[in-house]
DNA sequence: CGCAGTGTTGAAGCATATCAACTTGGGTGG
DNA sequence: CCACCCAAGTTGATATGCTTCAACACTGCG
């Protein structure tokens, strides 16, 4: 069931059989959410953390005027609120952007991992640090890249992350967001997103149809995005 | 020497005497950097992590066209590259924005903490998670706040963070950045920053002169920023 | 004293937002 | 099974926030 998580952690260091078994043993309670439902509400203090097995989810904050900013996108294998374990109180909400299948880990069990499994603890810590690295990359994209490059960068990132958990097929992957949601990810208006997407499509960089993104020219896409995947820490080494 | 770190960690949970002593014992090698020097270069694999004792530092990335985006600001008491311990390879540089006094912690010693001091491990983990929460808040500010509100939000954040480590005096704090650096933090041009700052000054919200920011109207500043400090996790509770 | 980095100002242009209308397509109830 | 409906996508027109460029003032320092 939790194969995607094992692929994720396993892409950064070798997991022992004991570690794998322990993770399997604490990740048992599963749940389903419909698109639009909150997996975790802002301000809550969940006693468990949520591993996404299938679907797309997003962390977000809503402003006083009703506008929304999505601060992270999550896919299969992502521990969407692992940070809630040390942090305790959610400072943002997490919403399902498609039907989501999740499984829960009690914070008591995570605590036990920190008491007895130092290596696994470091890998879970690393998992939250990669989230942070992605946040930084988004900040760079929002602050200093053109919107066109920002979009290209996001596509590169999603492709690499989905590849780790085997959710790509050739040069394509499922991408169930609406343009409205995508605009909330990028921090731009839907209209401008729509026009920029069309330009990229016309140029033959990538297409996005029927909830599927297909990369047409990977070289060119990376070039436009100035994409360098180091920040994703996809490299198996002792941690 | 490391009082600022103890204030930082101690603002989130109670530190035992044993934990304090251990931290003191591993943080011994100190160094000084001049403004403009790199504390940690991009692409490096430092065998230690750097605690900032005094001064301002920034994490940054440089784009192909030479423009720069600062992704984090660090002040006294911040472990500027604690994340390098599990991550290993730096995906960004860290530069001193003022003369900086730092002290180093060997990764071997940090590893020992994860093996024997689970509670302290969780507090260090939390420290890196607060960095992540700040990143998210910056993403929100860049994407969905006016530049004016973004600036106000940053001032609120810095004031609260500096208060934790006792680096405020009344409604003022030292802020040694140039407007050029500040613009790289916000992801805007210097010219526009300059004009927006003047508007805020004219309105009597805050002033920024001779490397010192003074908040004139804290209520109004928070209002403009829509500032809510939960994300900083400044609350002592069992972690 | 003079230079270099910083701060300030005004003018002009561009990127992006906003507003409004229209199209398209999938889902649903009559 | 068709008709309609609503959400999503698309388009064009207009408005504006922000950038860029260029010039000048200020200040600290060698």
Model description:
Chain A is of the alpha+beta class. The first copy, chain A, has 2 domains: 3-135, Sandwich (Jelly Rolls), CATH 2.60.120.10; 140-232, Winged helix-like DNA-binding domain superfamily/Winged helix DNA-binding domain (Arc Repressor Mutant, subunit A), CATH 1.10.10. Chain A contains 9 helices and 11 strands. The first copy, chain A, has helices at 3-10, 17-26, 84-87, 107-116, 118-144, 147-164, 179-186, 190-202, 218-225, and strands at residues 29-33, 38-40, 48-54, 57-62, 68-74, 93-96, 100-106, 168-169, 172-174, 206-209, 212-215. In chain A, the strands form 3 sheets. A 4-stranded antiparallel sheet of chain A has the order 2-6-4-5. In chain A, helix 6 packs across helix 9 (218-225). The longest helix of chain A is centred in the middle third of the chain and has 27 residues, at 118-144. Chain A is globular, with a radius of gyration of 18 Å. The two termini of chain A are 25 Å apart. The mean pLDDT of chain A is 97. The interface between A and B is large, with 52 and 52 residues. Chain A binds a DNA duplex (30 and 30 nucleotides) through residues 146-147, 178-180, 188-192, 194-195, 198.
């Amino acid at each position: 069931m939790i194969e995607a998580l094992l692929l994720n952690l396993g892409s950064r260091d070798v997991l022992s059989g004991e570690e794998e078994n322990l993770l399997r043993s604490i990740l048992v309670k599963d749940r389903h959410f419909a698109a639009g439902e909150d997996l975790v509400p802002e301000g809550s203090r969940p006693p468990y953390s949520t591993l996404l097995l299938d679907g797309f989810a997003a962390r977000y904050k809503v402003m006083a005027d009703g506008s929304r900013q999505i601060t992270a996108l999550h896919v299969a294998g992502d521990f969407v609120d692992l940070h809630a374990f040390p942090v305790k109180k959610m400072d943002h909400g997490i919403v399902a952007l498609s039907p989501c299948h999740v499984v829960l880990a009690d914070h008591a069990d995570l605590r036990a991992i920190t008491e007895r499994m130092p290596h696994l603890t470091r890998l879970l810590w690393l998992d939250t640090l990669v989230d942070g690295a992605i946040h930084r990359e988004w900040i760079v994209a929002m602050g200093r890249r053109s919107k066109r490059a920002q979009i290209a960068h996001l596509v590169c990132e999603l492709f690499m992350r989905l590849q780790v958990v085997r959710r790509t097929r050739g040069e394509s992957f499922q991408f169930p967001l609406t343009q409205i949601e995508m605009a909330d990810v990028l921090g731009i208006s839907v209209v401008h997103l729509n026009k920029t997407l069309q330009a990229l499509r016309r140029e033959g960089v990538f297409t996005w149809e029927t909830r599927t993104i297909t990369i047409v020219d990977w070289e060119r896409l990376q070039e436009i995005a100035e994409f360098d995947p180091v920040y994703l820490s996809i490299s198996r080494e002792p941690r």
